[in-house]
């Protein structure tokens, strides 16, 4: 098993193109071609987590929060980041982070939080935009199905819960084979006009290279004609935050106690409910620093919005909207370890993949 195998698995589930512009997800320290002896998964990476990896025979560490987030200008002993980089380098450890790309994926950080909270029928609070493309190609009639099957299997043609989606228009294609060509139809130097079917379908932008590759392999022409077009469409099944339903309405105070118990939170902060006996069913969530999604939760008529942290005035702003609840940044993202382990075990069921026993939450409560 190589580092590249682990990286490819994680980036298939959490594409790097999903990360925010300020982020630094991906392989941060290490060599893609190196062999992996074991994987340790944690929310954060520091010296204690790296030491645990060394002691347990794991030479790769996968975390949610990136070690290398801001620029590092020197490698000394003045910060845990510098010391961690040096420790990883000394022991030839490979360090990978899936941060906002995992936040914006479904399944992802928020969907596993929703799963623990018992939410159903979940959709993103803020769907991704500019992450979809259209493929248009031209195929002779007797190869339509083989070409469609190839690009569908590569990930094209999915719209919501539907797959194998495409549109076809029949027409005539023209071309003149040049010297030293090997045309599927026609002769060198002679204009050829043949019946062709125009096929158009949708696909995720991060899968473009593999879809174009399988298209060219499945297409009978030596030089297939195709276009890829960027779309402004929202991707309704991928994006930041989530909104879903509890199986039944419950009193707000009962749901707050559930949150505190399920997240092992030392405390919750919450805005004043609209009514003393307010019921909660429509729940919006965003693990970590998600207060900026509050307006989206309000627009989607959530009863309550749960996130990791918020500012003082955010609670004032919540007086006329959904209840605002903060449970802690670490607490709302702690299930990242379970998500990453589940993702890797689905692909590598017999490989040594451990969850760190270290609680890396830097926030303490009195």
TrEMBL record:
Keywords: Metal-binding. Signal peptide: none annotated. GO terms for molecular function: metal ion binding. It holds the Pfam family DUF34_NIF3. Belongs to the GTP cyclohydrolase I type 2/NIF3 family. Homohexamer. This is GTP cyclohydrolase 1 type 2 homolog. It comes from Porphyromonas crevioricanis. The lineage of its organism: Bacteria, Pseudomonadati, Bacteroidota, Bacteroidia, Bacteroidales.
């Amino acid at each position: 098993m190589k580092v590249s195998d682990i990286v490819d698995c994680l980036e298939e589930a959490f594409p790097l193109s999903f990360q925010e512009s300020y982020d630094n997800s991906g392989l941060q320290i290490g060599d893609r071609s190196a062999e992996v002896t074991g994987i340790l998964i944690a929310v954060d990476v520091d010296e204690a987590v790296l030491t645990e990896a060394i002691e347990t025979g794991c030479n790769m560490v996968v975390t949610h929060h990136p070690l290398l987030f801001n620029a590092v200008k020197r490698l000394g002993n003045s910060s845990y980041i510098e010391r961690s980089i040096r420790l990883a380098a000394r022991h030839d450890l490979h360090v990978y982070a899936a941060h906002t790309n995992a936040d914006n994926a479904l399944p992802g950080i928020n969907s596993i939080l929703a799963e623990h909270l018992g939410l159903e029928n979940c959709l993103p609070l803020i769907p991704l935009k500019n992450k979809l493309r259209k493929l248009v190609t031209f195929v002779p009639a007797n190869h339509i199905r083989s070409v469609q099957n190839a690009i569908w299997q590569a990930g094209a043609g999915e719209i919501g819960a539907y797959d194998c989606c495409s549109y076809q228009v029949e027409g005539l294609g023209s071309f003149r084979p040049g010297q030293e060509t090997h045309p599927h139809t026609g002769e060198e130097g002679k204009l050829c006009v043949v019946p062709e079917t125009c096929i158009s379908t949708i696909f995720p932008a991060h899968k473009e290279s593999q879809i174009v590759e399988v298209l060219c392999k499945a297409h009978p022409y030596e030089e297939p004609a195709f276009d890829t077009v960027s779309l402004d469409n929202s991707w309704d099944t991928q994006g930041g935050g989530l909104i879903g339903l509890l199986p039944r309405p419950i009193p707000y105070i009962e749901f707050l106690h559930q949150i505190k118990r399920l997240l092992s939170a030392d405390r919750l902060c919450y805005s004043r409910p609209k009514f003393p006996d307010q019921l909660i069913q429509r729940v919006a969530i965003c693990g970590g620093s998600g207060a900026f999604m509050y307006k989206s939760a309000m627009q989607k008529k959530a009863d309550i919005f749960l996130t990791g942290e918020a500012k003082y005035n955010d609670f004032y702003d919540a007086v006329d909207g959904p209840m605002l609840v903060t449970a802690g940044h670490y607490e709302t993202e702690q299930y990242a370890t379970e998500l990453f382990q589940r993702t890797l075990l689905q692909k590598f069921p017999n490989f040594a993949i451990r969850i760190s026993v270290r609680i890396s939450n830097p926030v303490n409560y009195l």
